[in-house]
Amino acid sequence: MGEETNSFVWIIGIVLFGYFVLTTWLGKKGSVHSRSMRGFAIAKGKVKPWIVGVSFGASFASANLFLGVPGWAYTYGASTLWWALGCFGLTWIGLLLFAKTFWKQGQKNGGSLTLPQWLGVRYQSKALQVIVALLVLFNIYYIVGQNVGLATMFETIIGIPYIWGIIIGVGITIVYVSLGGAFAQLISDGIQGIIMSVISVLLFISLLWTIGGGWNVLGNLHTQLSNIDESLVASTSEGGPFYSGFAILSIQWLLFTFALLPHLMNKVLTIEKEEDLRTFTLSSGITLFLLSAFSVFAGMAARLLAPGLESADGAIPAYIVEAFPPIIVALMVTGIISAILSTTDSLYLGLTTSIGNDLYKILVVPFLYKNKNISEKKLDQKVVRVSKISLIVLGVLSLYMSIDRPDSLALLTQFGISAIISGIIAPVSLGYFWKRANRPGAINSVIFGSGCYMILTGTGIVENVFQALFFSSIVGFVVMISVSIVVENVVKEKKAVSA
């Protein structure tokens, strides 16, 4: 076992070093495009649309799909398939519904670089842009989830201390994102997405020799799980996230709205031509299917091959050790590590871009350079510099927040996601087709929607984060519709009186 561990360390070390060299090269190559804020944030038109689509799927996948969700499958069994179904089906449907109009709106006023800016332009409100940018900061919890997943991989497979796994991941990501911005992030995520898709398919194929049963391999898996506990093959799971029909509905709502997350919708803004959206959404859908459909089965199979794990999030690492020879294990581990990094880099880029473009540029620049004669180009370079500095600050902060390992990786990542979605879902979706949607309605919707979520989860009134999101989203819609109508009527009355 000692020799195998040494082999893992060397092989993974060599591959990771190669990965670091590749991403650093991409970073330097992308540095040409990242000198301006537009190039750093979205690298518009510099990356082929099918690669952007694969990058979308890779950024979506994260540590959650390869560690957190299989951990649920290990613990709760077949009911976790509801998550896999929603990831491919509903998330992709959400992307198809939102992408085209979002792209068109994003081309107005010189083009939007971020989701907060998109909302600011749509509702002609700098205040809304700043509020949403502050809300986007909740994505730090998502980054922490990726750090934890990466450290879990290192710790479970090769025994690297938890804290060093976090330091390695944060260090690699900060280097190439700061160098190459969106260009480096999109290309590296595209490569990672292809590798991850191959690994997902291999995980499913491996059931043929780990579980057995030939064409009836899934039936055999079902039988063996039911022999352990009938609840492992039930459509709902007592005590788990999928414990009732309403709980499942709440989760499906989250997955449907998932595409609206800032670090994912920014990829839509990367597309240069409207006709390229078809290629982008098609490659996104294929990647989402490959990454979301198969790892759940490996998580369930791990319950049979490696019962009694201390942490359910280690189900996939434990499974691949049992299923594959050392050399393949090492390659698959590095592939899963790259999956984690593919989301982390996207999150870092989205956060730092928002800090520079939506907070520093709106709140600080008007005071620092109010009476100074400074060109737009120089100002833009200063915003880029602030974004890159904030990248280092966020890296250190996320490292600190990752020191204490959470009980559930999946639940940690969903907390920050849900806080953002509950605030933006109504302003974004109603902003597409409801002509009466206005600035006061959008601002109040963001405040009350996300505020409701934080109150429900913070006080424990609704302990389930998915149900809290569902209720908070309804609040967001009700507040936006009500305030928009009331404000519109007040304006009409004032005009009538003045006339």
UniProtKB/TrEMBL annotation:
Keyword Transmembrane in the entry? The reply is yes
What is this enzyme's catalytic activity, as reactions?
Answer: L-proline(in) + Na(+)(in) = L-proline(out) + Na(+)(out)
Q: Name one Pfam family in it.
A: SSF
Q: Name one GO biological process term.
A: sodium ion transport
Q: Its topology with respect to the membrane?
A: Multi-pass membrane protein
Q: What GO annotations for molecular function exist for this entry? A: symporter activity
Q: Which PANTHER family match?
A: SODIUM/PROLINE SYMPORTER-RELATED (PTHR48086), SODIUM_PROLINE SYMPORTER (PTHR48086:SF3)
Q: What is this protein called?
A: Sodium:solute symporter family protein
Q: Give me the Gene Ontology terms describing cellular component.
A: plasma membrane
Q: Where in the cell is it found?
A: Cell membrane
Q: CDD domains, from UniProt?
A: SLC5sbd
Where is the chain membrane-spanning? 6-26, 47-69, 81-99, 127-144, 156-179, 191-211, 242-261, 282-306, 318-341, 383-403, 409-434, 441-462, 468-487
Q: Which UniProt keywords are present, listed alphabetically?
A: Cell membrane, Ion transport, Membrane, Sodium, Sodium transport, Symport, Transmembrane, Transmembrane helix, Transport
Can you tell me which family this protein belongs to?
Belongs to the sodium:solute symporter (SSF) (TC 2.A.21) family.
